[in-house]
């Protein structure tokens, strides 16, 4: 079984995220999503989520490409996650290109950056809705 992992906040969930998850799943048979906790988002990413971790987890678990959702509560957990879950491929959108190359040096996992869906973002959604 080829195992894939990806990381993110996924709030507000939109089709750019779905594209990412679909593309990530194409690299294997089992996709794990490490979902940023509310605390990690607030303290480390300065992001205030609209949906709580539990609600974002519920949404992700309903997506056909996703097999398991685990918490992301540290920038430094990736190498340990890859060992713990026997990950073959680490996938992120290419807005992160280069940021996680160290993973292929420190683990046997392949690092793949897939094209980010250009025209959609949570920031854009909020702007279009006239909310801050
Ligand atoms: N993404 C995308 N297209 C978009 C928006 C997001 O492909 N229009 C991808 C991002 O590149 C990322 C994933 O969807 O791979 C999740 O995006 P976010 O929820 O914004 O997560 P981020 O803040 O990038 O957190 O440790 C890594 C971090 O947790 C990543």
UniProtKB/TrEMBL annotation:
Pfam name, any one: CTP_transf_like
Keywords from the UniProt entry: Nucleotidyltransferase, Transferase
Domain annotation Cytidyltransferase-like: ranges: 5-127
MF annotations from Gene Ontology: nucleotidyltransferase activity
InterPro entries, per database record: Archaeal_FAD_synthase (IPR050385), Cyt_trans-like (IPR004821), G3P_cytidylTrfase (IPR006409), Rossmann-like_a/b/a_fold (IPR014729)
Protein name: Glycerol-3-phosphate cytidylyltransferase
Protein encoded by which gene: tagD1
């Amino acid at each position: 079984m080829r195992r894939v992992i990806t990381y993110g906040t996924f709030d507000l969930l939109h089709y750019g995220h779905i594209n990412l998850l679909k593309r990530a799943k194409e690299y294997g048979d089992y996709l794990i999503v490490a979902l940023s906790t509310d605390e990690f988002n607030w303290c480390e990413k300065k992001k205030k989520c609209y949906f709580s971790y539990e609600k974002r987890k519920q949404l992700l678990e309903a997506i056909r490409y996703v097999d398991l959702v685990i918490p992301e509560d540290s920038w430094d957990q990736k190498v340990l996650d890859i060992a713990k879950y026997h990950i073959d491929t680490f996938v992120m959108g290419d807005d992160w290109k280069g940021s996680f190359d160290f993973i292929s040096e420190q683990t046997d996992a392949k690092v793949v950056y897939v094209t980010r869906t250009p025209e959609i973002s949570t920031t854009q959604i909020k702007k279009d809705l006239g909310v801050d």
